[in-house]
Amino acid sequence: APAIQVLQSIATVDDLVLTVQQDRGGNTLVSAVRAVDGSLAWGPLTVTNLTSGIVGYGDDAIFFVSGQQLYALNTDFGDTRFPNQTSGANAPLYNINEQTAPLVGSGIAICVGDQIWGFDVRTGAEVWAWQPPGDSFNGNVSPARSGDGRLMAAISDNNVLSVLDIKTGALQWSRPVAYAGTPVIDRDRIFVSGIGQANIVSFDLATGDAENFVLSPATQDTDGISPTPPAVGNGHLFVQTNDGSILAKAFGAQAAA
Fold first, then answer.
1. Residues 157-172: pLDDT tens digits?
2. DSSP per-residue string spanning 165-183
3. Which of 121, 128, 209, 247 keeps 20 to 30 A from 107, CA to CA?
């Protein structure tokens, strides 16, 4: 396996482990090793002379942002899907937050920053853009996608939760939340856990109707919820608290043991 210098991001894709790294000169390199034995599949390939952000995956490619541009590399051989660096034309620049992974699905790669953009996963062309008045998405809070791939949820810098149609960017609804946090979608609900808070707010994915889940008194006596996003499974929220505990909070039907 190739020696890794400064690791920017890592992703597993089928039988490959892909790394995005930065060399001593500040260039972004991408390589892939086989998961079974660590042998080199391809790379390292120098993609750009700028640093890069966190990797998203979908449509047989990895997606990341570097120098205000969205990059896509095909995972089979590591060739660049876009931007086209041989056409001679300058690709558009966007104020995208590099520290949030592109959200890929339904033919769209979603990026957040000054606003939310939807890009075509095959060409990199902008399909839609949406921005709430006087607000932005630069707070390193990654968006979430519904299980059927139709909807996405994002929390703005002003702590407003918005649900958009992934293919069109059409706003479905927006609701203020009392704190910053990462949205998590499970079936028909969105959960937002606030850093340092002692409660979790839940929204109906279709309507935006809200319900609060209050955590146990023992959790409220600590510093509350950690920055780690919660996990969802078997009708429970699994939340890490700032004292290092894992709290399981029931919210729906559970499968029999």
1. 999 999 999 999 999 9
2. ETTT--EEEEEE-SS-EEE
3. 209
